[in-house]
Amino acid sequence: MTESKSRSLAHNLTKLHTLIIGAGFAGLCMGIKLKEAGLSDFLILEKADDLGGTWRENTYPGAECDIPSALYSYSFEHNADWQSKWSGQAQILKYQHDTALKYGLENHLRYGCSVDSASYDDARARWQVRTSDGQEFEAQHLVTAVGQLHYPSTPSFPNAEAFQGQVFHSAKWDHAVDLTNKRVAVIGNAASAVQFIPEIAKKVKSLSVFQRSANWILPKMDRPYAKWEQRLSARVPMVIRVYRWYIWAAGEYGVLSAINGNRLTRWVVRTLCLRNLKRHINDPELRTKLTPNYPVGAKRVLFSDHFYPALARDNVALETASIESFTSRGLKTSDGAEHEFDVIIYGTGFQTNPFLAHIDVRGRNGLSIRDAWRNGAHAYYGVSTHGFPNLHMLYGPNTNLGHTSIIIMLEAQVDYVVRLMQRVQSAQASACEIDQAEEAKFNQEMQARLSTMAFSQVANSWYMDGNKITNNWAGGTKEYVRRLQQVDWSVYRLN
Ligand code: NAP
């Protein structure tokens, strides 16, 4: 069916082969690969007015990637213009724009389309999708590419509404608030906070960082690329392939091995982190407070050259007493102290569970995904879940990583989804659905393996839903890519 024929605007209903929700790295990659496979009858619905996903949303000062850009980019789209090893938010967003343009995705992108619901019509084997402004779409295949780190998590502290100063979350940075000479509090000190704290520490009058847990932090050792390095990577593709491999191997055989509990690599990562701490923090009491009390890799290992030096500044204080409540002028902590602030910034991360919480997804016989996942999200390789035929998830349950680029996982998933679609088409079937017992078997394997990894050795993290690790993959990218290279058709039911 051609694109023009398949789009019927009658009754405000647009019919397509595939609908993709979300125009971040995952959604864009899906679009590119669908076009390559000749499955061009698709739209990417994006609720915002621009593409980019997390790189559009997170504009806080100092926002940059904590995976080197040579690897945190599509394997098929090398960018010789990266200015430094770890790129800033604006450059990554530009890369996404340039790539979308180069691969001709503009006509497939629909902005301002916030998907409210998606339900599967069993009789017709079609997904019916509605947006918040009443637009309706119908597609054979539905691909969710909504990310895991999107909706800011703002803990509900008692009396929060009483605070008279300004408050915002790092993922919704309020650039209208001038922090110069202000008394500022930051709640949280993880991946986002360690990036913006050094930036704002330079201009504020005072900064109090409220830490609940310390983090393992490796030095980033960033530097701008020399012109000759950029030219070399543009002209000699082998250079970039070797460089990607080197970055990948450091994560896969270094950090992942530590996460897996290997004593030697855990000791090495731990030692490098402690050396980094010692190098910048002279005060033994502060050093103790900044030393994590959980194994390396249980939470994301961070990279920063600037966080510890910022904490060593005279205008910066680390508060470790827990926050009891807000007051009209600031925060009250469990040690009875009252702290006064002009601005409070939440660096408290994202609501990562339940998955797909903001879309009412209903599969066969009206089965709600919330009910299907009431004991925690699960999916076969994070992509397929029983009861939801032709629903394909990118960056779904148990596909996050703590050691390397998520784009490797996304590309493997996208290729896998294309294979699923092609098989449905070639078999002249309407849909494919994962077998319930096979999905359960896969998830048992995941949970058994995850229970031996560092991720399971903290009481809570964004990787977990209650006691269950719902977000992370239980191995390396090499294994994931290998296992997704071929579809095991015996575990799918075609109908
Ligand atoms: P996060 O890792 O979830 O950290 C949230 C921080 O807020 C933690 O320090 C947490 O303390 C603290 N917190 C949460 N609730 C609190 C409460 N009620 N009271 C006090 N403190 C509280 O969030 P994030 O820093 O935004 O990072 C999330 C993920 O985004 C990262 O793991 C990473 O995958 C990704 N990220 C990536 C980049 C990049 O460069 N690619 C940059 C930023 C973020 P606890 O540790 O005690 O829970």
Automatic annotation (TrEMBL):
SUPFAM superfamilies: FAD/NAD(P)-binding domain (SSF51905). InterPro entries: FAD-bind_Monooxygenase_sf, FAD/NAD-bd_sf. Pfam families: Pyr_redox_3 (PF13738). This is Cation diffusion facilitator CzcD-associated flavoprotein CzcO. It comes from Arenicella xantha. The lineage of its organism: Bacteria, Pseudomonadati, Pseudomonadota, Gammaproteobacteria, Arenicellales.
